[in-house]
Amino acid sequence: MKKIAFITLGCKLNYAETSTYEREFIRNGLQPVPWNRGADIFLVNTCTVTEHSDKKCRNIIRKLHRLRPDAEIVVTGCYAQLRKEEIRKIEGVTYVFGAEEKSMVVQTVMDHINGLEPSATGCSSFFPAYSSGERTRSFLKVQDGCDYFCAYCTVPYARGASRNIPIADIVRQAWEISAAGIKEIVLTGVNTGDFGKSTGERFIDLLKALDKVGGIERYRISSIEPNLLTEETVDWIASGTKFLPHFHIPLQSGSDTVLREMGRRYDTAAFEAKIRYIREKMEKPGSLKVFFGIDVIAGFPGETDGLFRETYDFLKDRIRPAFIHVFPYSRRAGTRAAARKDQVKDAVKTERVQMLEKLSDMLHEDFIKSHKGMKAHVLFESTVKDGMISGYTENYIRVERPAESGLEGKITEIEL
Ligand code: SF4
Predict the structure, then answer these.
(1) Which of 22, 45, 96, 403 is the most exposed place for a label (fewest CB within 10 A)?
(2) Is the model's pLDDT at 135 over the cut of 90?
(3) Cα→Cα distances 78→47, 114, 177, 235, 275, Å
(4) What are phi and psi of 99, to 5 degrees?
(5) For atom 1 of ligand 1, which residue has the closest CA?
(6) The whole model's pTM is what?
(7) Which ligand 1 atom sits nearest the alpha carbon of residue 147?
(8) Ligand 1 probe mutation, 11, 53, 152, 155, most atoms within 8 A of CB
(9) Centroid of ligand 1 to alpha carbon of 288 (angstroms)
(10) Number of domains, the chain
(11) Ligand 1 — pocket residues by CB below 6 A?
(12) Domain hosting residue 53, numbered range
């Protein structure tokens, strides 16, 4: 039996896709093994979000080839889409599959193993996927691609135009996830809220259909653009659904000048109004607060100290999220921002990242402390370390408690 190892870089969408490849290879008789346990084939699902990601992908491919010079290396994902020829030249690489060839990966590799001519035909613009590596939570891909072309981002080039499969197909996958005993689904996409572009359906109708899937008790939306999280959707979520008070929303900058130059589709006033609206609808006296995880880029070209200060103050005084995901700006070839002359020095970027990370720690601590003594429901996960079991509340507070049998995979009420 041939052994295959999977290496995934980047976002949850990649994890969902790798997990799907893994299920399909197992169905075809291959045995999955960890990367350092004698694999005959390596499948590397790559990322290209920053320069660092590209470098990491190249290094991993070279390392795998040194480790097992006879193994086949199959490369797919965003970096594979943007730098196909560059990757093909790396020693040990057998196949490189771009964005529209993902549905051909398994058949092509199996034909190769069986000494057959490649029989997979036809590119498909959407590769349906969900993760099944965790026993309690699954990342379900509901949308792919993006039409926004923000000034700093290569994702629309790497993943193509915004598209999706019909609601009925996604619901069918949710039932499969439910049948595996998984209780929580995280909806994942590149621009998740843009769902419906290729089928004419609406995001809110997807949520309503998923809410009816038996066995799934909780849903989270992994990341959604603020302009696409409509009041209608918020009202419906707040009306008592399986969707949790947890939102991951990209802000990227708290300066209107920088937002305009980034090509984002909102300003700080609209962003703040959206956060306030969600809080008003979902936070009742004595209820858990909404967890907001906010993405911010530090050091976008032209971001002066003053403009950065606007971002810092906006987050500290106006938004006060539970967490800030901070990214230093990365200059990506082919984007509008990369051509700008007013790039910010790396040392300044690092300093701004550190300031925002410290702010995030402080806000996170305040968020946690404000819940002391409150009742919450935790879905305990299967990982038990040092006699402890951990899980997350509805609003994404990580909880640890001494492990007891019967807690795994169950939603349990606790006092925080
Ligand atoms: S919305 Fe902007 S940042 Fe997000 S994937 Fe699309 S282009 Fe990139």
Answers:
(1) 403
(2) no
(3) 5, 28, 26, 35, 31
(4) -55, -40
(5) 148
(6) 0.94
(7) 6
(8) 155
(9) 30
(10) 2
(11) 146, 148-150, 153, 155-156, 190-191, 225
(12) 3-113
